[in-house]
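--- STAGE predict ---
source: upstream dedup step, 1 unique chain passed
mode: sequence only
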Amino acid sequence: MDDKWIAPTAAIARIADRLGRALAAPALAYEPLVVASHVVGWVTPWRVERLARWPQLFRRRDRALQLTPSLDTPETRTDALAAVARTLSAEGALTAWRDERYAVAASPGDPALFELERAAARYFGIHSFAAHANGLVGDGARWRMWLARRSPTKAIDPGLLDNLVGGGIAAGSDAAATLIKEAAEEAGIGKTLSCRAQGAGSVDICRDTSDGLQRETIYVHDLWLPADFAPANQDGEAVEHRLCTPENILAVLATDDITADASLVIVDFLIRNEHIPRGDPSFAALDALRTVPPWNNADSTRLA
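--- STAGE serialize ---
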């Protein structure tokens, strides 16, 4: 007899309603940020106006913000944008400074055109990447999942529940290295154990936020942990850990007490493992949230 746990239809409907709002496609107008003839970001018109006040760095032409061609190397672009980001941060226009950079390329896997301070990623609407892991105990039929409570001092989503492990992929790193690093810092998981994390593809987010456009690909992992494992935060970024039953997880996912990013990663887990069956009335809506069209090919009516 198949004893796989199946999420109740009513609970799935509540989650679909909440995430449909939290992960809604962008509704604001954006202008493309062009670097070396490549669109690498999307910026709201009022932010474009602020950036255009650096005429030696930016020019606004044909409904696009262009980085001046005189900045013709990754190094000169990185240095120029670092100075811009510092000024914007001093003006209170960015989230808390991270002193960590994201690599920005024309397409994933291409050489970086420049690097940008992480706090400015949403302001410029660049495509960022992250690695998350569902921390799991038990087996496929009878599992529980660890969640972490973010510190109230976190720059983004302070105080909300989150995946046990997750973090942005900094320039020069990759998903595997990021997962190992974040597992150690956020949950006290040693490399031998974190290396057992199973890659499970990716999910995409593209949505308006108060900080700008969040345009992110999250590489998803499942990490099965020993039954007696207890997370221990090492870097002060998590203030609580809780081990949740599937029913607890559904209850949390229907609220705004958990980040939208983590919610999507968990919904992806539920779909992949058929805990949300294809025949459920909300399946298609939740499944569609896991991928978004490439923003460069977005409907032009969304652009200023």
